[in-house]
Amino acid sequence: MTQPVPPAFAERHIGPGDAETARMLEVVGQPSLEALVDAAIPAGIHDPEALAIEAAPSEQAVIAELREIASHNTVVTSMIGLGYYGTHTPPVVKRNILENPAWYTAYTPYQPEISQGRLEALLNFQTVVSDLTGLEVANASMLDEGTAAAEAMTLMRRAAKAKDGAVLVLDEMLLPQTVGVIHTRARALGIECVTISLDDVDSADALSFAVDGKPVFGVIVQYPGKDGQVRDFRKVADAAHGLGALVTAAADLLGLTVLAEPASWGADVAVGSSQRFGVPMGFGGPHAGYMAVGQKLSRTMPGRLVGVSIDAEGKPAYRLALQTREQHIRREKATSNICTAQVLLAVMASMYAVWHGPVGLREIAVHAHSHAKALADALRAGGVDVTTTRFFDTITVSVPGKAREIAAKALEAGVNLCIVDDDTLSISTDETTVAEHVAAVCGAFGVDAPSEIPTVEPDFGDLARTSEYLTHPVFHAYRSETSMLRYLRRLADRDYALDRGMIPLGSCTMKLNATTEMEAITWPEFSALHPFAPSEQTQGIRDLAAQLSAWLVEITGYDEVSLQPNAGSQGELAGLMAIRGYHEANGDHERDVCLIPSSAHGTNAASAAMAGLKVVVVKSADDGSIDMDDLRAKIDKHGERLAAIMVTYPSTHGVYEDTITELCDLVHEAGGQVYVDGANMNALVGVARPGHFGGDASHLNLHKTFCIPHGGGGPGVGPVGVRRHLAPHLPNHPLAAEAGPESGVGPISAAPFGSASILPISWAYIRLMGGTGLTAATRMAVLNANYVAARLRDSYPVLYAGEGGLVAHECILDLRELTKISGVTVDDVAKRLVDYGFHAPTMSFPVAGTLMVEPTESEDAGELDRFCDAMIAIRAEIQDVIDGKVEVEKSVLRGAPHTAHCLAGDWDAEYDRMTAAYPAGVDPRAKYWPPVRRIDGAHGDRHLICSCPPPEAFEEE
């Protein structure tokens, strides 16, 4: 049968051309792409029905469609607040970070030697958060403020000296979306939350009385509160500590430039968002949340932590510290399932602080406060009851019965206010607020506007900020755009991203992020929307989300999709929560066992534990597939308690297992549900549908399969698809009825539609490719992986393969025997690949001592050959060690990677400089130079430094 011709854009997205494809097929031993896929995929799951998604005629047509969609959004000045504020992205940051593929196409910095630029930027971010909160250690970002607060809940429960049955106390002035996320997580974990007013809590006895004498493990307060009031929490903190509890402050980062830092009044943990540090509201995200803790809690903090270590020459170097892969190491005992940060957004926020410095940030804070003060004074002068007495940038007013009428008048003047209820309005100012906005609000209230907006220093009394912050030179050095531009370029040059070459990471799908797909994210119609704006103002973005959801339903074979989860880990949690909600709705409360194959992604087990499920591991057979006999035994043992199985397909080992339908049938017969991890969806789109071959739920990584860039380790988007019976249990949101079913499990993320502002990327990708192009991409991904496997099989055994020796979209190269006889490790190969100009494949996952390679469909044959040639050349270097020509400790492999600096200095290696720097196949004109030698990770963990070191640390001795 003649296959449909892919659209023109698909030919740009897919790397190999017709001639290259023919040559590669010959190497693999298959007559055509269709034959290859037919041979690789089990007939029982192969779905011949074409995807009913029409491709756009051109890239220009897609931009025109997006313009039309955007026109259905109404952008007005937002004074809603509630954790989302207008901000000015410095143009030098917007152009050189947000719109720069050197930053947005990078991967997570697990290979630190080629990630020094973004690691420095993240260390800047950690320093900003640590300085402003006054707590010693901050992580490299969280997903958003709501999930950060939920993570603080579990951190406090682990660390506090609390008895069984201890409760969490929530300040009644917490942001409503934060409360919603906390409750969703708490219900799954069996944690009781008690919401109270803390205004009268002045002792441990008073706090205990407020919770009916129950033990307390933690208190979470909002600073300032959602009503804008700045409260003194010193007595609350003392009271909590008196009961053996810990205190978390959900704090406004900009406000902390003028308000006393949380650590000064007793907070043990601080969480929040850095959105107003130059990151657009974007209808809710993505934004970099933050968490900071005291030194004693640093080793229990979730998420990524950038630390300072030393390289092989003893020079300072950055790396991820401590629990960088905690989920894979600890699995169901992990303290969190978070494996995604918001790196790109944290970098933007950190550079906003670098650009403005402490003086500039304080001026912005004073600007916001001055406009709020002028508005409050004008309203009071006009007889309006302003109930907030001590505020930073938000005031609350009482207008009995008139709130909606006044809000409507303000909207006519181009301003959105926050309607608390029929009698109450809340109004927030920010960096973008000007006198005209204040006048518009005054007009809506029918009072005289101030004739001018004087600059007013905040008067917070003994809650005023007195300590210094951002004293490190990096926050003072780049005041001119010339110097800032060069700083950003210098950091980018230290990194390796997709703009340099292939990143062949197994299970991570680093593919082309086309420029056209990225174009709409900076349009104000998408980027300037407040997530809680009136629904009639956001019709366009919600229409786009609905269409994207419909396409994902078509692709997966499920019935409903929620786009709210803002990371794959959150999609996993949402799917498992839906399954748990379904069982409980059916009265099957005893179903609490989740089966997970031993080869599964570590986040699977961590997510299951967070959903309140008990993990039971299913063994893997010798060929890497799920041990079906062990599966049957586990089902027999746990059948009446079986809630679900989580299975990755194709398997984590990169193979289309032919037992998947049998597995689904066995679990369903026992009353359980099947969760298919969508991490490897790039091998299924257009050729198989999880919802048709037995899956009940799956999350999809839009930052993998559907072209949202990894951004150096985030943003991610992890929507969850489910069959119809699970749909009533998808996430919903307390502030947006349209975001999910009324019977849903609650919010998984802080914003109703998660990271909505980057959804146009995946929408554009699918619209440009159409069903035919998407299917062609999958076939090419399978061909590229099999081509790499075929070329390297004689040098490195391919660990697992399916029928006919074929793999799926990735292959695992087994180095264990080579390591045994030579001493050369996967680390040595990974670091030597840097000298050849490559990012390393995934190391030691899912099998220790192996490399997992996923070339994706976007890499052409030339780049695949360059990689294969490099791996074959490295195999020859390993052979020199095996043959005794060189000791492994003195080999070029152990010396890698090599910096230009080391080559220019004294040279005592037993190999020459040319071998080190310019191995075979490396073009001297395109040489990538790593900025540091191999990094000593253990040293960094022993000597934990997680904020900017002094410049003297980098000076030559």
TrEMBL record:
<dbReference type="GO" id="GO:0004375">
    <property type="term" value="F:glycine dehydrogenase (decarboxylating) activity"/>
</dbReference>
<dbReference type="InterPro" id="IPR015424">
    <property type="entry name" value="PyrdxlP-dep_Trfase"/>
</dbReference>
<dbReference type="InterPro" id="IPR049315">
    <property type="entry name" value="GDC-P_N"/>
</dbReference>
<dbReference type="InterPro" id="IPR015422">
    <property type="entry name" value="PyrdxlP-dep_Trfase_small"/>
</dbReference>
<dbReference type="GO" id="GO:0016594">
    <property type="term" value="F:glycine binding"/>
</dbReference>
<dbReference type="GO" id="GO:0019464">
    <property type="term" value="P:glycine decarboxylation via glycine cleavage system"/>
</dbReference>
<dbReference type="GO" id="GO:0030170">
    <property type="term" value="F:pyridoxal phosphate binding"/>
</dbReference>
<dbReference type="GO" id="GO:0005829">
    <property type="term" value="C:cytosol"/>
</dbReference>
<dbReference type="InterPro" id="IPR049316">
    <property type="entry name" value="GDC-P_C"/>
</dbReference>
<dbReference type="Pfam" id="PF02347">
    <property type="entry name" value="GDC-P"/>
</dbReference>
<protein>
    <recommendedName>
        <fullName>Glycine dehydrogenase (decarboxylating)</fullName>
        <ecNumber>1.4.4.2</ecNumber>
    </recommendedName>
</protein>
<keyword id="KW-0560">Oxidoreductase</keyword>
<dbReference type="InterPro" id="IPR003437">
    <property type="entry name" value="GcvP"/>
</dbReference>
<keyword id="KW-0663">Pyridoxal phosphate</keyword>
<comment type="similarity">
    <text>Belongs to the GcvP family.</text>
</comment>
<dbReference type="InterPro" id="IPR015421">
    <property type="entry name" value="PyrdxlP-dep_Trfase_major"/>
</dbReference>
<feature type="modified residue" description="N6-(pyridoxal phosphate)lysine">
    <location>
        <position position="704"/>
    </location>
</feature>
<feature type="domain" description="Glycine cleavage system P-protein N-terminal">
    <location>
        <begin position="11"/>
        <end position="443"/>
    </location>
</feature>
<comment type="function">
    <text>The glycine cleavage system catalyzes the degradation of glycine. The P protein binds the alpha-amino group of glycine through its pyridoxal phosphate cofactor; CO(2) is released and the remaining methylamine moiety is then transferred to the lipoamide cofactor of the H protein.</text>
</comment>
<dbReference type="GO" id="GO:0005960">
    <property type="term" value="C:glycine cleavage complex"/>
</dbReference>
<feature type="domain" description="Glycine cleavage system P-protein N-terminal">
    <location>
        <begin position="476"/>
        <end position="731"/>
    </location>
</feature>
<comment type="subunit">
    <text>The glycine cleavage system is composed of four proteins: P, T, L and H.</text>
</comment>
<dbReference type="Pfam" id="PF21478">
    <property type="entry name" value="GcvP2_C"/>
</dbReference>
<feature type="domain" description="Glycine dehydrogenase C-terminal">
    <location>
        <begin position="777"/>
        <end position="898"/>
    </location>
</feature>
<dbReference type="InterPro" id="IPR020581">
    <property type="entry name" value="GDC_P"/>
</dbReference>
